[in-house]
Amino acid sequence: MTPLVQPERARSAPALGPAGPPLRHREHNSLAVVPRVEAPSRWIAPALLLFVDSAALLAAVAIAGASPLVLAYAVVALVTLAASYAYRVRIALRALDQIPWLAGRLAFALALLAPVALLTGGAGSLLRTALVSVALIVPGRVISAAILRRLRRRGLLLEPTVILGAGEIGAELARVLREHREYGVEPVGFLDSVPGKNPPVPVLGDVGELDRILEEYDVRRVIVAFGPARESDLVGVLRTAVQHHVEVHIVPRFFDCGVAPEGPDIDDVRGIPLYRVRRAALRAPVWMFKRVIDVTVAGTILTLSSPILALVALGVKLSSPGPILFRQRRVGQDGREIDVLKFRTLRVNHDSDTQWSVTGDERLTPIGRFLRRTSLDELPQLWAVLRGDMSLVGPRPERPFFVRQFSADVYGYKDRHRLPVGLTGWAQVHGLRGDTSIEERARFDNHYIEHWSLWRDVVVLARTIAEVVRGARTPPR
Q1: What residues contact residue 467 under an 8 Å CB cut-off, 6+ apart?
Q2: Closest CA to 234 of 161, 164, 282
């Protein structure tokens, strides 16, 4: 399966500075040298936080008295913190502000094991372990934050960053971030077509050149600070940044009117809030869980349904001349073509690659009508799930002919190919199948990608099963 997160890029861009090519400052049309920022390893800061939390949990286990239940709590607590992105290093390192959030995650681990503790009589030791864990993790986080801030002030662990928009807000952000290195953000330049006067860092290009700038400067963060670009144009640009494994932050509009959001995704930079754009579906660690579920469920269904598959194959063979399985090329992740198998439901034809399926197709065989109503014709697609070409849940794959057409005419249609395609999807469980709006399908698919979670996949699968059962009970017309 093609990995969702791009591997860390080799730094092939030439070093900037006296030995590298200077960049042209747009406003003054003069050469302005951008200092080279040596991007730190992505794992230094997260590894420090992970080490401190692990040490605190092990100490709590030792203090409370090692037992299987206590050890299980330490493991569950660490997994809960990792799954909650506790090791994603923030711009503003304020450990004390995170105490309620950390305590909530540790309490969640406690609640998960509470029934076992009550049954085994270990409630006291479990509660003691949880309380000691909080008492140790909080000061550990405070010390870690102080260490990271000190390293940043000394010029270490600074992350190359570009700011979209060289207006008043963008310029103030660049100035603040350069003066306060404890934020760990080093602005290397702006992207803007209409830069302001005397920007504190050079304008590297237009917003449309973001893809090139990300590669050239090994950018780690992108900050959107208003700017002249239309919001509709920024959507595609930001999706490009997310796919480059780059953290994206947005300055909320009207934040100075008291309407800025608050929470773990907000970093406060000297009074300027930065909202981090979530990209859960494009992170490799969480995607591994999704892949494990895909393989487990697909393999189980194929094994248990093998007698049904044999009966369906026999019925298709007897229904009309032609092959049992219908093979068709579809477009999968990143525009790569894949083979999709279904049980044949139509009489043999040669225009399926360019003919849009319609309700009441006269070529539909009697058993094909039954298979479509019960969705049994979709079962062979589980082989594509096992191969890694598809997932159980994701945007539905379409034929190349229509993908080219829709990509040219429908806003955001190409962006739905950021993930592997699925057997069912968020759009389908909202009734968007068959002769329905392609614009709405693209909108639902992109919404699914940008707000993905394992629980949402469970919801989609549950609603799909409910619709299949409902469709099977509905008498044919």
Answers
A1: 429
A2: 164
